[in-house]
Write a structure and sequence with these properties.
The protein has 644 residues and is α+β, with helices and mostly antiparallel strands. It is 34% helix and 28% strand. An eight-stranded mixed β-sheet has the order 16-20-21-28-25-24-22-23. Strands 2-1-5-3-4 form a five-stranded mixed β-sheet, sandwiched between helices. Strands 6, 7, 8, 12 and 13 form a five-stranded antiparallel β-sheet that branches. Bound molecules: zinc ion (2 copies). Residues 336-338, 389, 519 line the site of one zinc ion.
């Protein structure tokens, strides 16, 4: 007895087909989809399923191809199952945990007696290739949770048992390909052969469930793409990113270090890094003064009372370090600067005439981060925000937001970032009760952010419901030389703290009013921004940021006196200069200066001494025609001033 099923492609008329058990792939074919090679899944009434899923009636269907972001995600996740199968075959006794898809690829965490090493990857890759060649289908089955616990216990998979014991569902789904069965919701590609282009990239330690009290697992990362060309392009990019890794360059160029003996996530800025930081800070301060900011300073600790009033102890304490006791009172090290600036505001009565107040501070804060997530300069425990708070009247808010955005683009542009991704986070209009502050306040704040973005002709994404409960915000991500996006700037309204601290100003009507408050950090944190700069420039900083702008290289000892004169001339002109008068071959000195990515190598030999000139070699290997010292100074100064 044949049943009728009513199916339709999304947006097309429906049709009836008769079938006993119509699966997704057959249904798509029945609906006229000819080429199904690149299909990995199907949407059934909006829900993504396996192509082998039996289609009920009525069903609105949509093919999911590996060329879509959802499709490639499914393919990547499926690759993690294949990797787990390969690892289990190669390393008996290994225990499997979880294997999700991530950006560009996937990982799987294993518990193995010895942690996996990069040397293991080629073997695992070949085993995966075998499994893929066999084009094994992924079979889905549903069994009771108890049965699943029994099954994984019998397989010696305690992590799966632990996961299952925490589930509340009665039924769970398993997926099996070849000899490997995993607990998974799915969906997956129909068979392993769909995975055409993958590569295992690296191994890392990872705690079970990201908790350092748990066992350390061995994580293998891989990437997977829909075709070989995309994979190759990605791997090339990875190679380039590796060369630019700020941790490696930080060591090679002696910019900073992180030392276990001192503590994870805490940065030591070495002299060369310190020079760059000083230049960044000086520039930042100058531009802030020009934009009408004033600089303030605040302490590193504050009493528990303060953090109680600010709400940090109620809502942010898991990011704060344990308090210290000073004469019986609890003090916390600051995770944010805001309450301190508010205290300055509240130190006396404020009048409408003195608003807006724009107070900036390179404020060093400390936040608890699990050791597992720390990453070079990018994720740290102690960092300096280029923070500022703006306190203003409602009628000033539009101009303030606009000038904030102006300053953002000016600063980021000066550091060589001209491409941005902008996000506007606003309230969820259907759940207004979640947010504090009235409709008028929100409308005005959101309106001012939109107007500023429009006036700067910045395209942005509007994200409804992404605003935090206390105000809307703009986030700016910069794109680096490799096209990677990095979150830097946040311009954030706050309707909460002025209430909590009962901030007021006396209006022209003689009455007390509540000021608007905006938090903003433009570079984000100096540590993170420095990490981004290093990778963006691959350590070859533009002249204005280069810790050493010029190095004088002598050919023999008889050139040293002239070398000293040149050094004095350059140093007096404010050019950061070093001398290499060592008794080494010129080629050797040049190579070393090039490795240090010093922009100007000033070479002097007999000809230069006689002609009172210099020969200049640039770090890209090209040479300038012999010029005078004055010409060189003018050139370096000019380049520096234009921040080239
Ligand atoms: Zn899965
Ligand atoms: Zn703040």
């Amino acid at each position: 007895m044949k049943e009728k099923v009513t199916i339709q492609l999304k947006g097309s008329p429906s049709m009836e087909v008769s079938s006993q058990a119509l699966n997704g792939l057959d249904a798509l074919r029945a609906l006229g989809i000819g080429n199904t090679d690149r299909l990995v899944a199907i949407k059934v009434n909006g829900e993504t399923r396996d192509l082998s899923e039996t289609i009920g009636s009525p069903a609105e269907l949509e093919p999911v191809s590996m060329d879509s972001s959802e499709g490639i995600h499914i393919l990547r996740h499926s690759a993690s199952h294949v990797m787990a199968e390969a690892v289990k075959e190669l390393f008996p006794g290994v225990k499997v945990t979880i294997g999700p898809a991530i950006k560009d690829g996937f990982y799987y965490d294993f518990d193995h007696e010895r942690p996996f090493e990069a040397e293991d990857l080629p073997e695992i890759e070949s085993k995966m290739a075998e499994i893929i060649d066999k084009d094994l289908p992924f079979f889905r089955s549903e069994i009771s949770r108890e049965e699943a616990i029994e099954f994984f216990r019998s397989q010696g998979e305690p992590y799966k048992v632990e996961l299952l014991e925490e589930l509340t569902e009665d039924m769970v789904s398993l997926y099996k390909q070849g000899n490997f069965t995993d607990l998974c919701r799915g969906p997956h590609v129909p068979s392993t052969g769909k995975i055409k282009a993958f590569h295992l990239t690296n191994v890392a330690g990872a705690y079970w469930r990201g908790d350092e009290r748990n066992r350390m697992l061995s994580r293998i990362y891989g990437v997977a793409f829909a075709d070989k060309e995309s994979l190759d392009a990605h791997l090339k990019n990875l190679e380039e990113a590796k060369k630019r890794d700020h941790r490696r360059l930080g060591r090679e160029l002696d910019l900073f270090s992180i030392q276990e003996e001192l503590g994870s996530g805490l940065i030591l800025w070495h002299p060369k890094g310190g020079t760059i930081r000083t230049i960044i800070e000086d520039f930042w301060r100058t531009e802030h003064y020009k934009a009408g900011y004033e600089i303030v300073y605040s302490p590193h600790i504050g009493k528990a009372e303060l953090w109680q009033t600010s709400g940090h102890l109620d809502f942010y304490q898991e990011n704060m370090y344990s308090p210290m006791d000073i004469e019986g009172q609890e003090f916390f090290i600051k995770p944010m600067n805001c309450p301190f600036h508010i205290m300055i505001y509240r130190s006396r009565i404020r009048s409408y005439r003195e608003l807006p107040l724009r107070w900036a501070e390179m404020g060093t804060v400390y936040r608890y981060e699990r050791s597992g997530v720390l990453h070079g300069l990018l994720r740290v425990r102690g960092f300096t925000q280029d923070d500022a708070h703006i306190f203003c009247r409602p009628d000033q808010i539009e101009d303030e937001v606009l000038s904030c955005l102006d300053l953002t683009l000016h600063l980021l542009g000066s550091f060589g970032f001209h491409e941005y991704e902008v996000l506007l986070s606003v309230r969820d209009p259907k759940r207004k009760e979640k947010y504090i502050g009235g409709d008028d306040t929100w409308d005005m704040a959101e309106g001012s952010l939109v107007k500023a973005l429009e006036r700067k002709e910045l395209s942005y994404e509007r994200e409804e419901g992404e605003a935090v409960f206390y105000g809307p915000k703009i986030d700016v991500k910069i794109k680096d030389a490799l096209g990677r996006a990095w979150q830097c700037t946040t311009i954030q309204f706050d309707f909460n703290l002025p209430e909590r601290f009962n901030m007021t100003f006396i209006g022209s009507d003689g009455l007390e009013h509540r000021p608007y408050m905006v938090h903003r950090a433009l570079l984000g944190s100096l540590e993170r921004f420095f990490g981004i700069l290093i990778e963006h420039y691959a350590g070859a900083f533009p002249v204005w940021l280069a810790p050493v702008q010029a190095i004088i290289l002598t050919i023999t000892d008889r050139h040293i006196p002239y070398g000293r004169d040149l050094y004095k001339g350059l140093a007096d002109a404010g050019i950061r200069t070093e001398c290499d008068f060592r008794n080494e071959k010129l080629g050797f000195k040049v190579r070393e200066a090039q490795t240090r990515k010093i922009p100007y190598m000033v070479v002097i030999g007999d000809k230069e001494v006689e002609g009172h000139a210099v020969t200049v070699r640039l770090r890209d290997g090209s040479n300038l025609a012999p010029i005078s010292l004055e010409e060189l100074i003018t050139r370096i100064r000019h380049e520096s001033e234009h921040r080239g």
